[in-house]
Structure formats: structure tokens, C-alpha cells
Input
Amino acid sequence: MEIELLKSLFLKYKESGLNHRYITNNHIGPLLENMANKLHVETIGRSVLNNPIYGIKIGNGKKRILMWSQMHGNESTTTKALFDLLNTLLSDEVSVNHILNSCTLYVIPILSPDGANAYTRINANQVDLNRDAQDLTQPESKVLRDTFNAFKPHYCYNLHGQRTIFSAGKVNKPATVSFLAPAQDEACTITSNRKVAMEVIAVMNEVLQAVIPNQVGVYDDAFNLNCVGDTFQSENTPTILFEAGHYHNDYGREETRALIFMSYMSSLDYISKNDVSGANFESYFKIPENEKCFFDIIIKNAKIVEGKSEALTDIGIQYQEKLIDGKIHFIPKVEKIENLDAYFGHKMIQANNLEVFNSEGKLLKVDYENVFVMIDNEKISLLPK
Output
């Protein structure tokens, strides 16, 4: 699909009821009620704390695609983009009708409603659902497995969010969107169904490169059968991991949301129009692997006085995401005080060989949480814009 068409569809059908990072059943429930007369919505199971897990079926085509989001409750960007996608597919746009004629989508918008409520990676039993694919100890894991067995998808979209620490290679470029065609064996063999997933990822990457050049990464494909993607891939279903990452000054992940929407649309368009064989998989390997090269903030050239000696160092600060009164707050925390020449900062502050103090007039130390710092009696905010 053309870039300008994708951009216009997003702006026209973006779901206004979902914003920022905190997305729960309370947010999507009213939206699902409004859609109930246009598509099939059902409760497919219950979480540990007895919250409903919803399933949505849309389309009439032979190609079946299973999509699930918020397996980790604090990874909500892909959920927002799912509702943008649903709004678009439910519209009267002639340019998208072929997707529903060729494909049937089954969407689980929030697999871990308890984790979403608490804004945590784990469920209410303190289990990471993405490490429970084999043991199936949790009700949410069983819901996904049962849905997979019943729907028998031809493709799986495993939808996640990633931290701001990731770069697209060892360069000063954030991994704003990342993908992976998971391994299906210890040898990470490039199997036929992995090639299919790689070919679809390559199509999405080509689209994204026109919008965010050099800001797309892929994850290491080390095999772990306890992970859902690896499990489904090992059962010969082409599976694609999506990771929504950081865009400059976009801590609410609204710019990234648009890019994930474009990824959904371009991939579904491609699948609907082609019998994807995996023959065009090789450009997948041109995408750089993710590296952990970023801090949210780096304060450069801070003076450290120890006894009678002075030295210069850097201060690396990472935001801690905390749920307070129903909103996500970003709390700056000092992670490292050392030479950080090998790292990049989403925000850079020059200390200019001066000491850096916190709000209480104390020199910064590792694990300090500060909303601002003082350099040469100047108060500098550390909060995102």
C-alpha cells in the first residue's frame, strides 16, 4: 500500500478513545460494545482475577491470522493500533475491502487484563505469560492456546512493546519498531515457515524505511520453546513478533502507534494479495539487530571530586514507568555513573565540567530518583516533554 494512503487512513480512523500508555478492559469495553453489531465479539476466557478476555473475529477470507496483544499488560501500543486497524477495516473504504475478502482475523486485544490493570509485565500470579507456552500453568496461557487450536491460523502476530534502551544496530538510532521471525529449533534453522514470516517482515520494513529510515531492528533469534512465538513457529505456523519501541520525544507512544498501524495494514495487504511462499525472505537479513545502546538521558562531563582529585564522568538516567492514580508517570532514575561514550541518550545534557546536584543539593548517586537536577545553580528538568 502507498505510504500516503496508510497515513491518511490512520488519521481518519485513529481510535480517539485510546491514548497514552495505560490501556485496560475498562478502556476497550465500550469500544467493543459499539462494534458488536459489526463484528463478532466474545468472551473467550477469564484471567486469574476473573476479568474477561475478549476475542474479536472479522473478515470472511480463507487466510486466517491470529493476533494477540498485551500478553504483557504494560505493552499497550499495539493494542491502540489494533483498534485503529479495526476502525479502518470496518469503514467503507474501498481500498481495504480486499483484506476482509481474503483474510479472517481473530484478535485478542488484551490477553492479560490483570497485568494491564496493574501495568505490569506479569499476570496476577506473578508469571510471565511469554514463558508459559509449554507448561500452560496460567488461565491466560490456556486461553491463547485454545484459541490457536480452534482457529488454526495460517499466520500469528505476537504483539509487544519494547523499552527505550534499544537501538537499531550499534548506532544513534532508536529501534522504533522491531520484528522477529522466531526460531523453531535450537539450531535456529531457516525453515520454510520462518521464511514466510521473514518475507512479510521484509515488506513491512520496506514501508517503514520510507518513514523512519534506519529505525527498524530485529531481535536475536535465540531459541526458547517456553516463549509463545517459538512454540507456534515450531508447530509450523509462520509467526511474527512485533515490538513497538521509542520515537523521539514520544513517550506516550502515539507516533509509534501510527507506525505499528502502518505495519499491520501493509502486511495484511501483502498477505491478502499474494500466496506468500517465503521466496523473498533474504532482505530480512538486511535489518540490523537490536542493541542496548540508549539511556533516556545522559548527562555528559560531570565533575566528580574524590578527596583532592577531580575527574569527569557521565550520568546515565532511565525512566521508571509508574502507575499513579490511573496514569503512567515517568520517574527519572540514575542507572550508571561512569564513562558512557559507548551509549547514546534520547536527551543529552552537558554538565560542562561542573558538579551535578539533586533537588536537595546532594551529588547524584546511582539509584537516585530526581525530577530535576541543578548544574551551576540552574534547575534542569529531567521529565519528558
Remarks:
- The mean pLDDT is 97.
- The first helix runs from residue 3 to 13.
- The chain has two domains: 3-292, 295-381.
- DSSP finds nine helices and 17 strands in the chain.
